[in-house]
Amino acid sequence: MRSLSVFGLVFSVMFLALSSSANELNYCKNNGINDQGSKQCAEEPDWIRTVPKSISSYYFLGMGSGKNKTEANNSARQDALGQVILIVNSTISTNNEFNTVYEENSSTQDYKLMKNGYSKIKVKGETAIKNFQVKKTYFEEDRDGFTAYVLGEVPKATINEEIARMKKLREELSETSIAVVAIAVNAKPKEIYYNEELKSFLEQFYKSQGYKLVSLDIDPQQLTGDTSNALISQVKEMAGDKAKKIVFASIRLTNARVEDAKGYQFYVVEGSLTINELSGTSDEVTSVQHVTGKGISKHDFRKAFMNLEKNLVEALTGKQEDSSY
After folding, report:
1. Cα–Cα distance for residue pair 115/4, rounded to 1 Å
2. What would the pLDDT profile of 253-278 be if each residue is shown by its tens digit?
3. Residue 278: its H or E element
């Protein structure tokens, strides 16, 4: 099974006992020159082209990119782990055998979207897979940074234990109400509105973990805070006691400028997508994740911001095709 995400943004892997002592490290740089700089690297390892199979274990291929090897490696590990967590959840949801989901689901669009969610969004500690080990690692370097490939292994006995444990956890989560609020905050011109695509993706992602979704009747135009903390406080106040957990996602502008290139004028905006997982009954913040990006338009800042929104959401879901103009 080979299913790769294309983004290098890293969210750290919590709660894992990742074994690296058995790793097989390979490294190529400068488009094929090895780390001694003296000869061409061999072809990429066979385990990248064809994921191994075993009687006693399942293997998962993860891929990640980053500015340095550590960032790329962490991203690739989270990518592989995301596949394990997703397939365990899919096995429970569909009541199928794990092996069936393992062999078949990687080709479906829903699988690819949810895998990318588990790769990018930090999940709760108790939902981690125990005994997940990285067996082999391979790096490539180019002018943009590094790409890492990792081969993760999980014993089949562990999978069976995890399925049983996750079934119990999902029973608990089914009683945990969660609400998703996803907004875009544009400063040029100043406006706040819902991003329905982002909201839909996050709702599907948390539903796949077993949470009970509830809706909040919040008018984004009533949100007046200038900072994320102010907006979060307003959302929690409006939510009252309707949800035990709140996922607050916001796309915000961080920089805007006009650039001239070859006689043409372009509007360029930079911004971030922040996902806050919050307790609805206390001040606890379970996790905070960030995705950064850019939007460009030849028309105006509003169009550039719309392209920024599209790029950020697609970066999260793994469907990114750079939007501009």
Report:
1. 9
2. 889 899 888 788 999 999 999 998 88
3. strand 264-279
Cβ neighbours of residue 89 under 8 Å, at least 6 residues apart? Answer: 166, 170, 208, 209, 210
Taking the C-alpha atoms of residue 207 and residue 276, their distance in angstroms, rounded to an integer, is 17
Of residues 307 and 156, more confidence is placed in: 307
- Amino acid identity for residue 34 in this structure: N
Beta strands at 245-261 and 177-187: parallel, antiparallel or unpaired: parallel
Question: Sheet harboring 133-142: ordered strands across?
Answer: 33-34, 24-29, 133-142, 145-155, 57-66
Nearest Cα to 134, choosing from 67, 32, 64, 87? 64
Residues with Cβ < 8 Å from 271, sequence gap 6 or more?
Answer: 251, 252, 253, 254, 255, 292, 293, 294, 295, 305, 308, 312
Helix-helix angle 156-173:69-94, to 10 degrees: 70
Q: Which domains does the chain have, with CATH numbers?
A: 24-173 (no CATH), 177-317 (3.40.50)
Read off the pLDDT of each residue in 294-309 and give the average, rounded to a whole number.
92
3-class DSSP state of 185: strand
Q: What share of the chain is helix, strand, coil (3-state, %, to 5)?
A: 35, 30, 30
DSSP conformational letter for 60: E
DSSP, collapsed to helix, strand or coil, labels residue 55 as: coil
Positive or negative torsion for Cα 235, 239, 241, 247: negative
Tokens of 297: 């338009």
pLDDT (tens digit, 9 = 90+) per residue, 199-230?
998 998 888 777 888 888 888 888 877 778 88
Q: Which two tokens stand for residue 55?
A: 């009687």
**Of 310, 313, 307, which is closest to residue 325 (Cα–Cα)?**
307
